[in-house]
Amino acid sequence: MKFRSSKIFLLAAVGFLSSCEKEAFVDINKNPDALTEIPPQNQFLNATTGIHGQDFEAFYDLYRRIMPWMQYNTLLNGNQGSFTLNFDNFANRYGRLYNGVGDRLYDLEQLVGKLEPEEQPRYDQMIQIARILRAYYAFYVSDIYGSIPYSEAFQGRYGGTLQPKYDTQPELFARLDGEIKAAVAALKVSPAVPQYSLGAYDQYYKGDPLKWIKAANALRLRMAMRVQKADAAAGNAIITEVLAQPAADMMAGNEDAWIFIGNATFTGDAGGGNWNTDELRAPKPMVDFMWEKRDPRIDAFFTPNEYSQANINLLIAEKKLPAGTKEGRRYVGSFTSPDEARLTAVVQRYYTPKVINSNKENVDTLSLIQPRLFSTGKADAAGNAGTGQSYLPVITYAEYCFMRAEIALKTTGAAAAKTWYEAGVKSSLEWYNQVGVNAKLTDYTPTTPAEITAYLAQPGIAFETARAMDQIASQSYLNFMKQPQEGWALYKRTGFPNEKSVVPLPKLTYLNVPLVVPRRAPITLPSQSDPNYANKKAAYDAMAAMPGFGDLTSAAGRVWWDKP
């Protein structure tokens, strides 16, 4: 495949930039004067493209680690061997915080501080929005790493330390929540002077402060639900505080979703690249569930197999299929457990395609990941490059609804949970339909209101009080197809989905030995030559002493919030 040729270069480049705990601070340019000619809003755009333009993270962290672990995909021949023990090149988000996101957003504030005094107040809202985004990404990194530098980070070129201390995860989450809360409060105050808007430099909301207030409150809920698992009182206090906000400050529809929208080439072009999903199969558990329940998202998530009637007729003519064979179910998933994928009968039936001699084409039994869902610029079978929009969500309205449903189930009761659950399912179906249409997904058929109504009435989908949490989590899991990292966090936080849930995920085994799903990022042990060795070692020693954190270099242990 074409992306293989560039992989060595990318591995070297990203390995230098984000070797996680290696040179993440000292390699930042220490000269602040080099930035004086950059408009502050440029650094906001640079940060957002830094967050969402990480094709290396897509290739390794999502496609080949988290998605197989969480049974969102398999490789061509199904999951193989002890695949959950493979952490190579995993967790690319760490280095980006210090070289491409957090530093850029800190620069924005410093650049404003260099402007004429009368100009600086006109950037107040821009600074608050930048703080929300920086808090989000710091949370995203700490979420799987635990302790990270934050309170003293990003300041090296402005006279701060190049050996920042590490903030523990409970300290950091509390600090980030405080920063987001303060930013919301500031954005709600009518500015004393006209504000410079981020406008087109903001690919999420075009600088709209009201939208950012809604996004920030949704982020506080997501963080609080992590905190709740480790410190129920602290998490509940944040949730109560957020839900006391006026309805106008909360997400109310898909138009409020926090989503980066780029052009087709942002996530790969016709030549392939690291966004390319060509080698990724649709997973059998999810496909079977969606097919049985007539889930309208199935063609947004996956492709039909190659058993079209035209191909069947060619195989009949070559006596490779019985006469009269008709086209049947064309969404067929790949086996997620290695012990199933390696069975001789399974290999012969599902992983051994028939060949049409007349045109030398393989007829593949299994579905693949819908290519343009992740790589919008992907060329179709005729060689035409995709021209739709690239959607990269941070927090969808559906996620917000499912969070509200879970909170309601634990507090106000099943009636409110049902309302939010149904709103979440409906908004997820509608949002993926929007993606299907605007990303111009291959062979996609738009969803109709009647299909949504019928889906909500299906057994297992229609709300059941006795299975409410299972249903909420299972639908959240499906909604996170475009955000498998959040599906992974959902599993760690709730234990859903599992082998007995509404969306059942089979146990993963290899040679009859259960495979354990990883729970955090592995950590590279520090070298004594590292300029921040003392702070790093102290932080790592403290995490290693935490119950359940485990071997630093493994991904099997748990960070602070991920309590058993």
Automatic annotation (TrEMBL):
Positions of transmembrane segments: none
Keywords annotated in UniProt: Lipoprotein
InterPro entries recorded: SusD-like_2, TPR-like_helical_dom_sf
Protein's UniProt name: SusD/RagB family nutrient-binding outer membrane lipoprotein
